[in-house]
Automatic annotation (TrEMBL):
An individual GO BP term: glycerophospholipid catabolic process
GO molecular function: calcium ion binding; calcium-dependent phospholipase A2 activity; calcium-dependent phospholipid binding
Stored InterPro entries: Acyl_Trfase/lysoPLipase (IPR016035), LysoPLipase_cat_dom (IPR002642)
Source domain of life: Eukaryota
Keywords linked to the UniProt accession: Hydrolase, Lipid degradation, Lipid metabolism
Protein name per UniProt: Cytosolic phospholipase A2 epsilon
GO cellular component: cytosol
Domain named PLA2c: residues: 1-249
Length: 249
């Protein structure tokens, strides 16, 4: 755990604002984080820096990075800028992986554009670095070129590691089936043409709006992929239940 200073909320800090416009731009480039959204500061007036490190309720864990200037924690700022964590790691469940949570199964629905496996691979490296039990993620380059609709990753040697049920965003059997086990008729084949991987895909990173048809197709595709592989979800859940039973014996 990091060693906090005795009275960090009383750090002496100085802010020098250059008058030259060019120097101001350089200062912003060097000191400010990349912003995604700017919001009214809902923490304005809330003195979160008031000896919070000495509070018994303040929890420091392996991934805690203490603020260098806790006496500047947006107490008086009118706005606050929130950065998208996807710039660092494009998953949302690191907080769930604390040991106290005792997570058994993770359903990873990857709807990012670009590489479908990279977010999960980066997550695996992140948890390894933090010493958090997590299954190893390994797919060959050939497998990455021809992704299936669903994968199960688990670590039989580490009972504390959760089972990961991974759904990449792919259009595989949906091209031929409108529902699991129900083939498309010739006039329905066009509904199965959902481009989620090419550079011309309407669902790429810089697409912020979809037509009604594009939206419906994406929902139908993702719903189908989950329904078509529900047996793998049930398999992972049953395996987790059985593992808990074994530990209780």
């Amino acid at each position: 755990e990091p060693s906090p200073p005795a009275r960090s909320h009383e750090l002496e800090t100085y802010l020098v604002t250059p008058e030259c416009g060019i120097m101001g731009i350089i200062r912003q480039v060097l000191t400010e984080r990349v912003m995604v959204s700017k919001f009214y500061n809902f923490l304005k007036g809330f003195q979160v820096h008031n000896e919070y490190l000495q509070s018994k309720s303040f929890c420091i864990w392996k991934d805690t990075v203490l603020e260098n200037f806790p006496n500047q924690l947006t107490e008086t700022a009118e706005f606050m800028c929130l950065a998208d964590t996807a710039g660092y790691i494009d998953i949302s469940y690191p907080p769930l992986m604390r040991p106290e949570r005792k997570v058994d199964v993770v359903l990873h629905l990857n709807y990012s554009s670009g590489s479908q496996t990279s977010p999960l691979e980066e997550a695996s490296k992140y948890f390894l670095k933090q010493g958090i039990p997590f299954p190893k993620i390994h797919l060959s380059e050939e497998e990455k070129k021809n992704l299936k609709e669903c994968y199960i990753f688990e670590d039989a040697e580490t009972p504390e590691a959760p089972t990961v049920v991974f759904f990449p965003l792919v259009n595989d059997t949906f091209k031929r089936y409108k529902e699991p086990g129900v083939e498309r008729s010739p006039i329905e084949m066009a509904q199965g043409n959902v481009d989620v991987s090419s550079i011309f895909s309407p669902y790429c990173l810089n697409s912020f709006t979809y037509t009604e048809e594009e939206f419906d197709k994406l929902v139908e595709l993702t719903s189908y992929n989950i329904q078509n592989n529900k047996h793998l979800i049930l398999q992972a859940l049953n395996s987790a239940i059985e593992q808990k039973r074994q530990h209780k014996k």
